[in-house]
Write a structure and sequence with these properties.
- The complex is a heterotrimer of chains A (294), B (267) and C (359).
- By secondary structure, chain A is mostly helical.
- Chain A is built from 11 helices and 2 strands.
- Chain A is 72% helix and 3% strand.
- In chain A, α1 packs antiparallel against α8 and α5 packs across α6.
- The relative contact order of chain A is 0.19.
- In chain B, 34% of the residues lie in helices and 24% in strands.
- Chain B has a 6-stranded mixed β-sheet, with helices on both faces.
- Chain C is mainly α and 359 residues long.
- The radius of gyration of chain C is 22 Å and the shape is globular.
- The chains are: A mainly alpha (294), B alpha/beta (267), C mainly alpha (359).
- Chain A: It is a multi-pass membrane protein.
- Chain A: One of its GO terms (biological process) is amino acid transport.
- Chain A: Keywords: Amino-acid transport, Cell membrane, Membrane, Transmembrane, Transmembrane helix, Transport.
């Protein structure tokens, strides 16, 4: 039982990170109706920016802020030069998906060019210490991830529900034509959405890098977990991303432990989850039922 | 080419004498200062041309209707004016050429467009729809304006926390108009507000519009298929046929002219 | 099967036009026939790899170009084809090309399975499933290392007569023709299979089934209302597309003789997609052109670059994908068609020299 609890807590800590990446995916989905396959690579790129600043001697928190700012710029730029000119994702999903795949390749290659192909090491943000709760050891890093996720969700909630900007972003997501008719500069807000998503991804990357080692394939697995999280939660739901993140984290931590066939594939439960949700409840747990629109 | 045969009168003579309840709300209309001036407007979708040189003017505070059958280019005219589609020709708003501007830039200048069908943002609540309508404003009267709308339309007030998408067609149309007016526009573009509404509801919507326009002095450019209703409401009218203005004049004159009614309005 | 339609149309053409249409193909086949004799062995080996890629791209094109479903997971299907072939030959002693057929069948079934969500979901969501498949596949290979060899690789062997006794030896495609080296023989075998697959795909697309593929892509609702079983069409297309990718993978296995999980990551899936998009989605020959382009790029051009900037290859391909989507969504073939249309329009207007018929 204690063993189970231990694994579960590890999973929840991981889940917080998946949820962070999921938040970024939801923000982009909500504003553009697009599944951003380059989200993970954007996060990887900006995590390298964090690493660079940190290795130049900046304190970690400042490096993270810098990385988020850098990530924001990358996201905004990517939207302006690559995504926006292709056109409306609702009309040309194929073209836009291919563009995000192009971004995936491009960002990955660019990171290899700039930072090389060797993994870098990054210290855990909350140290390597542990705390024992009910006889179960939990790393501060995992607790920190849950807390940071909480803060991010709160900030997003405030942004979307209590600011004019957030209201405008929601209007753009729901009906971009009406939004532009009331005077909202739609392209600029979409750019902002991409920037925000990338900035959030930075934080996810900072939490993952100490475990996996910071390399250019840092986020490729994590992205699938993030997608599993938002598939379960609903592509357009921030709350769904969080709940989904925790469930996916817990499942992929617990199941490989008890089911030998998943031993080397913590990804498999996530994959089965994606398939099952898409087949039986495509809108997810918290999403609005609009997934099947043509 | 634009021999928009001035059937009844030329487009220059401003506001009609009240006649059917439309007052000009005390605006002194100058002959030079049109609010909106559209010349040889051409537009289309892809390679399909829809408009072939539309000319029309709207003066401050004036209520004008563009009539025409399905496919005549009414909606396209409004979409071209508010910058939603690319267009050629000339569009002047407050003396400034605005052709090629994006819709949000025009909204900032004072044009509010209620598009055809549901112009509401369905995923936002009623109150949020009104608030987003005031996006271009930064004064401190937004809250009191919202309250005024709730008083004027208790049904909106009762449902202020409900999603706009969950309301009936008439309520959504009313909300769309209210949302447009929240920006305190100088010109309101209305695209077939009667579409899909029961006749009774349509009448109510038009009654409200008339009151609002009169009290705020907002000019209205309306496109409608329902000619009789629109002519009662508007002071002046244009008739659009196959992408061209073929007729214009005071509503009262157009209403009285049986030949015109038969030929263009399909009554 | 589409012969009746084409002869009917070409009856109106003049012999000159006919020659113009056939000549490029004759030239192409002559070039393809000469190529293995003009290049060193390692190049011919590379050409063989390009052909396996072209086959996979042809399969993906059926799905993405003609049916409008996107897959970011064809690398995994390619891999399933490769490993099925390898395992069948090594473990069960199946003859080489028998294994290819079995791989195609298995990939067809897998494709149907992956395509199942298409019953409920559309567009982007299917892409998501395939992305997950592509990411999962190399991990699966490691998980089941008992039969796949895991990251140590799978050596494909078959019992062969060696110094008078039967032994497990690495597979080889021996040339039965005197005067043809082994690699040249392999080249022609692969070329034959590739050509057959492309011709079969062409016939499929020109058939009634092919038209229903396109109808589903262009407008599902309209297709549905005109009696096309949309879900079935989508799923079967996925299966077919997967089977073709599997054949590509199977040939890859025969070509390489050894398989490693690292060859079948998400990146392979993306490169297959690159071949389709660059060559021209929704054109039969496009994926082949795209595969040759990709081969030239990664096996010839990139090799000239210094090691330090090798990753630039991904950047260039990524940027190329984006630029193509922005500037020439039809890829190389689409661009060529546009030029051709412009040219023939100019020629016909010069001939008529009258006023423009339209406007």
């Amino acid at each position: 039982m204690r063993d189970f609890l231990q694994i579960l807590l590890v999973g929840i800590g991981d889940g917080a990170v998946y949820a962070m990446l999921g938040l970024g995916l939801v923000v982009i989905y909500r504003s553009t109706g697009l599944l951003n396959f380059a989200q993970g690579e954007m996060a990887m790129f900006s995590t390298f920016i964090v690493w660079t600043m940190w290795s130049l001697g900046l304190p970690m928190w400042l490096a993270i802020l810098g990385g988020m700012a850098g990530g924001f710029c990358v996201g905004a730029l990517v939207h302006q030069v690559a995504v926006r000119p292709v056109g409306d994702p609702h009309e040309k999903p194929l073209a836009v998906v291919i563009v995000t795949i192009g971004l995936f390749l491009g960002l990955n290659g660019a990171a290899q060019l700039i930072w090389g192909t060797l993994d870098r090491s990054m210290p855990p943000l909350f140290g390597r210490g542990q705390v024992t709760v009910f006889g179960v050891a939990v790393a501060w890093q995992k607790i920190g991830a849950v807390i940071v996720l909480g803060v991010m969700v709160l900030l997003f909630y405030l942004l979307f529900q209590h600011t004019k900007l957030g209201l405008a972003m929601r209007a753009v997501a729901s009906n971009s034509e009406s939004a532009s008719l009331v005077g909202i500069p739609v392209p600029r807000l979409l750019m902002l959405g991409w920037g925000l998503a990338a900035a959030v991804g930075t934080v996810a990357g900072v939490f993952i890098a100490p475990n996996l080692g910071l390399g250019t394939n840092l986020m490729q697995l994590t992205l699938i977990f993030g997608f599993a999280a938002i598939t379960l939660g609903g592509f357009d739901s921030l709350v769904g991303a969080v709940v989904g993140g925790f469930v996916v984290g817990a499942l992929s931590s617990v199941m490989p432990r008890y089911i030998t066939i998943f031993e080397k594939m913590p990804l498999a439960p996530a994959f089965i989850l994606i398939l099952a949700v898409l087949l039986f409840r495509p809108e997810g747990l918290f999403g609005k039922k609009q997934v099947t629109r043509v | 080419m634009s021999s928009a045969g001035d059937g009844v009168s030329s487009a220059g003579d401003g506001v009609s004498s009240a006649g059917d309840g439309v007052s000009s709300a005390g605006d002194g209309v100058s002959s030079a200062g049109h609010l909106l001036e559209v010349k040889t407007l051409g537009a289309g979708y892809g390679i399909v041309e829809v408009l072939f040189g539309v000319d029309l003017v709207v003066d401050p505070g004036e209520v004008v209707v563009v009539l025409g059958a399905n496919g005549a280019g009414k909606t396209t005219t409004l979409r071209a004016i508010s910058g939603m589609i690319a267009a050629t020709g000339q569009v002047k708003f407050l003396g400034e050429s605005v052709l090629g501007r994006r819709p949000d830039q025009l909204a900032k200048r004072g044009i509010a467009h209620v598009p055809q069908g549901r112009g509401t943002v369905t995923a936002l609540t009623v109150e949020e729809n009104l608030r987003i309508g005031a996006y271009v404003r930064s004064d401190d009267q937004i809250e009191s304006d919202i309250q005024q709308w709730f008083e004027a339309f208790p049904r909106l007030g009762e449902r202020k926390d409900q999603l706009a998408g969950s309301m009936s067609g008439g309520e959504q149309q009313m909300l769309a108009i209210a949302r447009a007016l929240m920006s305190r526009p100088k010109l309101l573009l209305l695209d077939e507000p009667s579409l899909g509404l029961a006749p009774l509801v349509t009448h109510e919507v038009f009654d409200r519009l008339r009151e609002i326009s009169a009290s705020t002095g907002t000019a209205v450019l309306l496109v409608e298929q329902n000619a009789n209703l629109a002519l009662e409401f508007a002071a002046r009218a244009y008739v659009l046929e196959a992408g061209r203005i073929v007729l214009s004049g005071n509503s009262a004159d157009l209403q009285g002219d049986a030949a015109i009614q038969k030929a263009y309005l399909g009554v | 099967m589409s012969a009746t339609a084409t002869t009917g149309a070409s009856a109106h053409r003049s012999p000159g036009d006919w020659a113009l249409k056939v000549a490029p193909w004759v030239v192409l086949f002559v070039i393809l026939a000469i190529v293995p004799f003009q290049f060193p062995s390692f190049r011919v080996e590379q050409f063989c790899f390009w052909m396996t890629l072209a086959i996979a791209a042809c399969g993906l094109n059926l799905l993405t170009g003609y049916n409008g479903q996107i897959s970011v997971g064809h690398g995994a299907l390619f891999g399933i084809g490769a490993y099925t072939t390898g395992i069948l030959i090594t473990e069960f002693g199946v003859p080489l090309f028998g294994a290819t057929v079995a791989s195609a069948v298995l990939c067809f079934a897998t494709g149907i399975l992956i395509g199942l969500p298409a019953l409920r979901i559309k567009g982007l969501y299917l892409a998501l499933v395939t992305l997950a498949v592509a990411t999962l596949f190399p991990l699966l290979l490691e998980q089941f290392s008992a039969i796949t060899g895991g990251s140590g690789g799978l050596q494909i062997t078959s019992p062969q007569l060696y110094r008078g006794e039967m032994r497990e030896r690495p597979i080889r495609l021996e040339s039965p023709v005197a005067g043809l080296e082994n690699d040249q023989w392999k080249y022609f075998v692969f070329l034959g299979i590739t050509v057959v697959i492309f011709i079969l795909s062409r016939n499929l697309i020109k058939s009634r089934v092919g038209r229903s593929l396109v109808a589903v892509r262009d407008n599902e609702v309209a297709a549905e209302s005109s009696g096309i079983p949309v879900s079935q069409v989508k799923i079967v297309t996925f299966g077919l597309s997967a089977a073709i990718a599997g054949i590509g993978g199977s040939l890859f296995a025969l070509d390489q003789g050894q398989l490693y999980p690292s060859s079948f990551t998400i990146v392979l899936s993306i490169y297959i997609l690159v071949a389709v998009v660059v060559g021209g989605a929704a054109s039969i020959i496009g994926p082949a052109i795209g595969a040759v382009f990709y081969g030239l790029f990664s096996d010839v051009i990139v090799q000239q670059m210094p090691d330090r900037i090798q990753p630039a290859r991904a950047v260039i391909l990524g940027v190329l994908l984006i630029l193509l989507m922005l500037l020439a969504p039809g890829g190389i073939v689409g661009g060529f068609r546009t030029l051709q249309a412009k040219w023939s329009a100019r020629r016909s207007s010069a001939l008529n020299s009258g006023p423009d018929p339209i406007v």
